[in-house]
Structure formats: structure tokens, C-alpha cells
Recover the amino acids of this structure.
């Protein structure tokens, strides 16, 4: 069907039609059985036998005859006295009670219309037997229940209800499945797109439909394609700009060196060197970020996290000594040796940037700790420092590109670019992990990286 409106309309119409049709067919079938049972009873010898039993034994004789009435006749007989009570003291069904009241009203109308022709006798709603003393017994004949061999003791109304419920349930299930399945797939694709998977598409599963859901799927694919193209263009633009900036930066540094030789060492030249170094570092980080922004071309490989962390810690400690950072050092607490299937270059970049960020924000002569543990099939890497921490409102944006907290922006010591933690977040996500940050109770910031340990790879 081309429209969800038409599908909903026809489905509900079909449910109502099946219910009405089943009710009509069931009612007609039951009415025909009632008519056949009544005619068979009245036209046969059963009424004559009942009359003879009443003449011979009165009410007790008629009750005895009713008890002995053969069940093979496929009918059930109720004999009501003038008060409307069954002579076998059975519970009278409501529809028979209503029929008895109509019958009594019919008799009252016959006695009232005495001016009618003598040769006119109206049809009686139900057959009767009359005793010599004038007592009347009214017979109501109904089909017996459906044979036990077919549906046990289920009567026609219950059968109709079950049929209507089954029919409506099947149609409703088919309709719900037809709607919920593509919506669920579209939801999964939306979540994947929000998580950064710009290659996700739904054309194969939803886009071939010709209704509104199919139109939505095709629009989703078009949106995802435009987002992917825009992201690639932005990545390419950042990469090209970074490359183009390095050429004039290199020429500027050469010009500064030439000017030093001619004019001597001036404080302004040292300032130019520092700013050129920061600009070169920023360009390098932008290039690193753009490389992680696209899917890696190499295949993932087994990575031993304990060895990788030890190597990164050694490199960062060497940088701290070489750059003259005020007594800040990095110590490791390796409590496990898990292996993951991932990209070692991206992991090294992630941990290095986290550690450098912690070192930069740590007070002099303090210690930055990195720990490694394994729990529930996941490798947990935590980096803790003793710095000022981060405002709670800034924690959610801490891993956004070029984001700097208010404290960092106002600090004279911090010359960060706001890309280090963004690079770490992108690298961790590339390896199928997640990253988060929280303020420590005793002061400082705790950055936690959780990576999945593949089965068969943990040591």
C-alpha cells in the first residue's frame, strides 16, 4: 500500500467488517438451528408423548417424561409452569424468561380481542399443554450446545467472541509489525548517526517501501549523505588550511632567525619564537584531530594496554623533564594486563593527550596517577590529578573541540588549545570505547576511559 492512512483505514475497517460478519453469520446460524429444532419438536411425536405423560401422571408424569427425553435429539427442552418456573427446577436462561413474558402478554391480548372473527387463530410464540384443571405448561425448545467432540462445552456466543478476538488480534499484530519494525530500524539508524556513524543508511530495509515510512527512510538517507559530505568537506578544509599555514609559518621562523643575526637577541624575537611554537603545536593538533575524524584505513590489531600505558607514561615523564615543568611527574598503577582489538596509534594519542592535560593543570611538585584495571569484560583506564578541577557545568562540554573552561581561559599558565581532550574522545570512540570526566572528592579531575576487552584477547 502506498499510504499509511490507507493501511490504517483498511485494517480497522477489516477488523470491524470481520466482527460484524461473524456476528451476522453466527446469529443467522443459531436462529436457523432454533427454528429447525422447534419445527422438528412440534411436528414429531415428542409433543404427543409429552401430552400423554401429562394426562397419565400430571405434573410429575410430565417431569418424568422430560427427564427421560433422549439427548440424541440434539435439543434442550424447558417446560415452564404458569409462574415461569421450570418443572425440573433448572435455572431458566434469560432469553427464555423474556420469551415466556412475551407469551403471557400474547395470551392476554388474545383474551382482550374478543371481537375478532371466530375462524381466526393467531400464531402462538411457543407450544403449550393444558391440563383438565386449566393449568398450562409452556414448551421452549433450543438447540443443544455444540458437540463436545468439536469444542467441548463452548456455546455459540463464546465461539463468536473467540473468533472475533483472534481475527482482530491477527490483523492488529500484522498492522503493528508493519509499522513498528521500520520505525525501530529508523530509530537504530538515528542513534548510530548521532553517535558519529555517518555511513549508516536505511534504504535497503525501509527505503523500498512506497508509504510515508518509506518516504521518511529516503529522506533520512538523503540527510545522512549530506551530513557525511559536509563532514568530509569540513575535515578536508581543516586539513588543507593546516597544511597551508605551516608553509608561511616555517618562512616566518626563518625570517626571525635571520633578523636575530642582524639585530642581535632582542626580547621581541624570543616572543615571536614562543608564539610560532604555539601556532605550530596548534596546527599539529588540528591535523591529528582531522586524521581521527575519518575512518581509519588500517585494520584493527591486538593491543596490550599495560605495555602501551607504560610506554606513554615514560614518554610524558621525559617531556616533563625536558620542558622544565615544576616537578610534576606521572606514576602508573597497573592492576591488570588486558588486551583489546583496536588501533594502537589512536590509543597512544588519546592517553598522551589526557596525561598532558592533567600535567598542565597540576600544581608544582604534584603527582598525576594513571591506573589500569579490568572488570566485567572491560578495561578501565583512569587518570587522576590534583589540579583545580572543572566546574560541574563544564564537564559535559569538556571533550568538545576548542572548548576551554573559564579557569583555563583566565589562567596565565595555561596555553592549551582545547583540542587535546577532543582528540582523546575521538580516538577512544574509534576504538569502541567511551570516555568521561568527574571532579575528585579530594580535589582535582578524574578522567575515565572504558574500552571493551574482546573475548580471547585478555591476558
Amino acid at each position: 500500500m502506498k499510504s499509511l492512512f490507507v493501511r490504517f483505514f483498511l485494517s480497522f475497517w477489516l477488523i470491524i467488517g470481520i466482527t460484524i460478519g461473524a456476528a451476522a453469520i453466527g446469529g443467522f446460524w443459531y436462529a436457523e438451528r432454533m427454528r429447525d429444532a422447534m419445527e422438528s419438536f412440534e411436528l414429531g411425536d415428542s409433543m404427543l408423548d409429552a401430552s400423554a405423560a401429562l394426562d397419565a401422571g400430571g405434573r410429575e408424569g410430565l417431569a418424568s417424561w422430560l427427564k427421560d427425553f433422549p439427548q440424541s435429539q440434539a435439543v434442550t427442552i424447558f417446560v415452564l409452569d404458569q409462574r415461569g418456573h421450570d418443572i425440573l427446577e433448572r435455572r431458566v436462561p434469560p432469553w427464555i424468561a423474556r420469551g415466556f413474558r412475551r407469551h403471557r402478554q400474547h395470551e392476554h391480548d388474545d383474551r382482550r380481542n374478543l371481537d375478532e372473527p371466530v375462524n381466526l387463530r393467531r400464531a402462538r410464540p411457543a407450544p403449550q399443554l393444558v391440563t383438565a384443571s386449566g393449568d398450562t405448561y409452556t414448551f421452549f425448545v433450543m438447540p443443544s450446545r455444540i458437540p463436545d467432540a468439536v469444542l467441548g462445552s463452548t456455546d455459540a456466543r463464546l465461539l463468536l467472541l473467540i473468533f472475533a478476538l483472534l481475527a482482530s488480534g491477527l490483523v492488529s499484530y500484522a498492522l503493528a509489525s508493519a509499522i513498528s519494525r521500520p520505525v525501530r530500524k529508523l530509530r537504530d539508524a538515528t542513534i548510530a548517526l548521532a553517535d558519529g556513524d555517518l555511513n549508516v543508511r536505511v534504504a535497503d530495509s525501509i527505503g523500498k517501501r512506497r508509504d510515508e515510512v518509506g518516504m521518511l527512510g529516503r529522506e533520512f538517507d538523503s540527510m545522512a549523505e549530506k551530513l557525511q559530505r559536509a563532514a568530509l568537506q569540513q575535515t578536508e578544509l581543516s586539513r588543507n588550511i593546516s597544511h597551508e599555514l605551516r608553509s608561511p609559518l616555517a618562512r616566518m621562523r626563518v625570517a626571525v632567525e635571520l633578523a636575530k643575526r642582524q639585530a642581535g637577541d632582542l626580547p621581541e624575537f624570543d616572543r615571536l619564537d614562543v608564539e610560532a611554537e604555539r601556532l605550530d603545536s596548534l596546527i599539529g593538533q588540528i591535523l591529528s584531530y582531522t586524521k581521527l575524524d575519518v575512518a581509519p584505513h588500517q585494520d584493527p590489531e591486538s593491543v596490550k594496554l599495560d605495555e602501551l600505558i607504560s610506554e606513554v607514561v615514560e614518554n610524558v615523564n621525559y617531556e616533563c623533564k625536558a620542558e622544565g615543568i615544576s616537578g610534576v611527574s606521572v606514576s602508573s598503577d597497573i592492576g591488570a594486563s588486558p588486551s583489546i582489538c583496536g588501533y594502537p596509534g589512536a590509543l597512544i594519542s588519546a592517553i598522551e593527550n589526557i596525561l598532558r592535560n592533567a600535567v598542565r593543570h597540576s600544581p608544582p611538585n604534584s603527582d598525576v596517577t594513571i591506573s589500569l584495571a579490568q572488570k566485567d569484560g572491560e578495561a578501565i583506564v583512569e587518570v587522576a590529578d590534583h589540579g583545580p578541577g572543572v566546574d560541574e557545568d563544564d564537564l559535559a562540554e569538556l571533550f568538545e573541540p576548542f572548548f576551554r573552561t573559564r579557569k583555563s581561559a583566565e589562567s596565565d599558565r595555561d596555553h592549551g588549545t582545547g583540542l587535546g581532550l577532543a582528540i582523546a574522545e575521538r580516538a577512544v570512540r574509534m576504538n569502541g570505547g567511551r570516555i568521561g570526566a568527574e571532579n575528585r572528592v579530594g580535589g582535582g579531575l578524574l578522567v575515565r576511559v572504558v574500552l571493551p576487552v574482546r573475548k580471547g584477547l585478555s591476558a
